[in-house]
Amino acid sequence: MISTSEFRNGSKIELEGNPYVIVEFLHVKPGKGGAFVRTKLKSLKTGSIIERTFRAGEKLDVPDLEEKEVQYLYSTGEDYFFMDTKIYDQSSLNANQLGDSKNFLKENMVIKVLYHRGNPIGIELPIFVALMVAKTEPGIRGDTASGGSKPATLETGATIKVPLHINEGDVIKVDTRTSEYIERVK
What we know:
Layout: E1 2-3, E2 12-15, E3 18-28, E4 36-43, E5 49-55, E6 59-60, E7 65-76, E8 79-84, E9 90-94, H1 95-98, E10 110-116, E11 119-124, E12 128-136, E13 149-154, E14 159-163, E15 171-175, E16 180-184
Antiparallel strand pairs: 1-6, 2-3, 3-4, 4-5, 7-8, 7-10, 8-9, 10-11, 12-13, 12-15, 13-14, 15-16
């Protein structure tokens, strides 16, 4: 059990049988009436964000979550297959469960899969991944690193904005949380 006084950003709670992570919380003590905690919760299953208010001191369940290190193997249409690196057991997730994370999956990449009550519900990618630029418009003479940006399609099929000096075949570092270009990898 977790009390509202123990809420922190990133804490995980179970609400109506579903796991949530606390994105934001605010303890409120009005002039009259009891104190309460206003929260924004992100569903670990669907990624949707809801707002909930709890009475001060209210206790909530901690979800039964387990993280396993797995290796991404391949995808077939909407299904993505992973192998547990310790017991070599295979599991799959569909494109809806992966959300935008699927745009940065590269074969043989080692990631973490989050399980709720034994069922896989999502993945956790490394914060930064190195991916090759598969397609982009060629740079124009005189372009600098501080110039504008252009769209580039990565080897995984994701499209992000990159500086004008980036060319096809370049390997770049991408932030998986924001889908933003960080730097060119040497």
